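Q: For a teaching handout, I want to show students what a protein-ligand complex looks like in token form. Below are the inputs, and the small molecule is 5'-O-[(L-methionyl)-sulphamoyl]adenosine. Please produce the holo structure.
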Amino acid sequence: MSKFYITTPIYYPSGNPHIGHCYTTVACDSIARYKRMQGYDVMFLTGTDEHGQKIEEKAKEKGVTPQQYVDDIVKVFKSLWSYMNISYDRYIRTTDDFHVQAVQKIFKELYDRGYIYKGEYKGKYCTPCESFWTQSQLDENGCCPECHREVKEASEEAYFFKMSPFADRIEKLLTETDYLQPKTRATELINNFIKPGLEDLCVSRTSFTWGIPVTFDPKHVVYVWVDALFNYCTALGYMNEAHDDFAKFWPADVHMVAKDIMRFHAIIWPAMLMAMDLPLPKHLAVHGWITFNGQKMSKSLGNVVDPFILGERYGADAIRYHILREMALGADSSFSNEIMINRINSDLANGLGNLVSRTVAMAAKYFGGTLPEEREAGEFDDELIAEATALRGKVDAFIDQTQINNALAEIFKVVSRANKYIDETTPWILGKDESKKARLATVLYNLLETIRIVSTLLSCFMPTTMPKVWEQIGAQESDISYENAGKFGVMPANVTVHKGDIIFPRIDVEKEIDELNKIIGGQSGEAEKADDGFEPAELGEEITIDDFAKSDLRVALVKACEKVKKSKKLLCLQLDDGFGGRQVVSGIAQWYKPEDLIGKKVIIVANLKPVKLCGVESNGMICAADAPDGSAKVIFPDQDLPCGSKIR
Ligand code: MSP
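A: Here is the structure, written as tokens, with 5'-O-[(L-methionyl)-sulphamoyl]adenosine included.
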């Protein structure tokens, strides 16, 4: 049997988990379940990364020991994973004794091999990220290139890991192999880190104690990233006796991470493995962030949606489905209550739920629940059967490329096809005609079989709900397998259905959004104070000055302003733009009253194509910036500038 080893990052228990943390874990869980269904011997690892200055500081603030602090939060992580039905095979905590001792051995081994040496570190340190940076790596404001917060000068005696011997091999790994998924991310890594010359990495700290002591120099603790990355190996028994499946499962088949920790997994991790002469993992799948109002969802921003609250309202499976369906590998996915509820309603309640309940209800109504064995083929059957049987192959391919959203999209195409088949074959008309019973039985059987295939594949993504579907369509345990998901005609011709509860109830969108907004409002009040503040939206693609010159930005005076009727979000502004005046509609009504703007000069994008918003014509756009509380702040230029003044 082939093995398959998949890992999530190990999470910092520096605060409770949020929906953003759920994505990787739910995605890895779905892939692990799929691979198990395909017959692989799967190892799915997750865990917590418990050392470091940040944890030490948080524990101190709370007046508990770091160990007590992490123990409490790890309980919340574990209960969330159980709530979300995460089928991990192993959970590693970096405070586990076996891991601590293994990391000590690894550090010593790297030292003995000459890859770690003692030196003096002078550099810029970002406390929240626990990362040292060189001057050239800082952002344009001289801040941390990862989180854009302030860095401080720091200097300490430290051990270093030699990176340069591995530069060529790493460049090849990123450009010539399919290690990195998506591969398009290789350019930024090569330009930012490899081309300027890979600098040696500082791998020990003396400024705090909550870490793994270096055995041969105990005032040093091992840099938290070295400690953390090796979890992928120690959890299998590498350099320890607690487990014994390193030979079986290493190298990992998939490490899945979000983009902010790609550098550690794409450069530092391969270098350390090379130094230990260990085989490299096969794939590093990098996804974007779940964002909220355009910013990374994070505890410190107070924009966190509690997965327990959402799960309680809609069920863990609906949340799993939503985050998996929305996130495309390599891009960010914006979370909003509205998108989530609409997605649940359209795909789960109207799409799949409706298909199951209509089919089962008709089998009950016309045949008392048990289909007769007579059959009569007809138009549309072949197309449905062909699509249903081809589905498994398409899903396989997307799972192998960690493109879960696309796998789900394929499955829901078949759900739509089946709903269309009901409209085409009109079983309610067939049901009125005694001579059409064999045709009706065929139509219903084809629908039940399609549901069986779809729900078998979906059970990896929505593991709680699909067994309820099987119960309703009368599928037996032996009907549900990977092998049978590629075949049509598996259930007996005289299958018996069982009417049951609605699988995904429809949600009242407006009512729910109001209630969720109240909950989120309450949460942001309670949210931990940002020790660090604001995380800006991701930088856009590089453009040339000519690209920029295409946007015509001008100063304009707000002469009049009023709310757009029937819209809570829009204001309609009359502007003096220096060219005779224009009307612009802007989505800032939540944050500005008309009187806040009248008489002020603003900046507009003056050469945008006109559009109609809520039926009102808009000729341009008012420039505004993201604020840490999720609102938009209008940019007010020097008020003495004349109307029409061009911004260059
Ligand atoms: N401890 C390190 C990982 C060490 S792995 C050897 C760490 N932990 S973390 O808890 O901060 O983040 C864990 C993962 O969750 C990262 O991949 C991170 O990017 C991801 N996410 C945190 N917030 C997220 C979103 N809002 N959206 C998607 N993923 C998010 O980094």
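A: Two things your students might notice: The chain has 21 helices and 25 strands. Confidence is low (pLDDT under 50) at residues 524-532.
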